[in-house]
Design brief:
Structural class: alpha/beta
Largest sheet: 5 strands, parallel
Strand content: 5-15%
CATH topology of one domain: Hypothetical Protein Ychn, Chain: A
Helix content: 25-40%
CATH architecture of one domain: 3-Layer(aba) Sandwich
Order of helices and strands: HEHEHEHEHE
CATH class of one domain: Alpha Beta
CATH superfamily of one domain: DsrEFH-like
């Protein structure tokens, strides 16, 4: 009986050792597990702030439009000097009105000289000219048949220059007739007009050139 008890005790002792051994092994395992620290928690990644908005570059104001330079008007065309017309292309004759209003032989002859010079000039270049001598006031004596100091010269000029005419003032003639109580004769080369001044005005209004020696 003692032997059986001893055997049982041995088996129990062995079983106990096995249990203890198992517990120690398990404890060791747990100890080892505890020693291995849990992996450090990785903190949540720091939030990266949204990138700072880059402000849009300041708008550069559009430079003011530079007004186009004022167009320089083309220089006015300078008309070429008119060519001296010849008898073939002359549209109208030159015209000259001569006034004589003084009873002075020198002035009368000067007037006839002017008439002769103008007539000869245009004749030489083949152009036409019309000339009219208008006498009034005291100048009517130039065309009076009884008092003219130049009537012979006028007669000669009329024969060679048919484009030269003479006009006697009718108003002056009437005044002289009353003053002298006689008829005032006028040379045949002259015509009588109503008024010498009016005749000169009319000629100038028609574009005639005017001359008073």
């Amino acid at each position: 009986m003692n032997r059986s008890f001893t055997a049982l005790a041995g088996v129990a002792s062995i079983a106990l050792e096995l249990m203890l051994s198992t517990q120690i092994s398990s404890a060791a395992q747990f100890s080892t597990s505890d020693q291995i620290s849990a992996p450090a928690k990785i903190g949540a990644p720091t939030k990266i702030g949204a990138p700072t908005k880059i402000s849009a570059p300041a708008k550069f104001s559009v430079p003011a439009k530079i007004s186009a330079p004022a167009k320089i008007s083309a220089p006015a065309k300078i008309s070429a000097p008119a060519k001296i017309s010849t008898a073939a292309n002359q549209k109208q004759p030159h015209r000259l009105a001569v006034q004589v209003d003084v009873n002075d032989p020198a002035v009368m002859n000067l007037a006839l000289n002017n008439v002769s010079n103008a007539a000869q000039h245009y004749s030489a270049i083949g152009q036409k000219v019309e000339i009219e001598v208008v006498a009034f006031g005291p100048g009517l004596h130039m065309l009076r048949d009884d008092t003219s100091p130049v009537k012979e010269r006028i007669k000669s000029m009329s024969e060679t220059m048919p484009h030269v005419a003479f006009a006697a003032c009718g108003n002056t003639r009437e005044n002289m007739t009353r003053a002298e109580a006689k008829d005032i004769p006028i040379i045949s080369q002259a015509k009588v007009v109503k008024a010498g001044v009016v005749r000169l005005m009319e000629l100038q209004e028609r574009g005639w050139s005017y001359l008073r020696p």
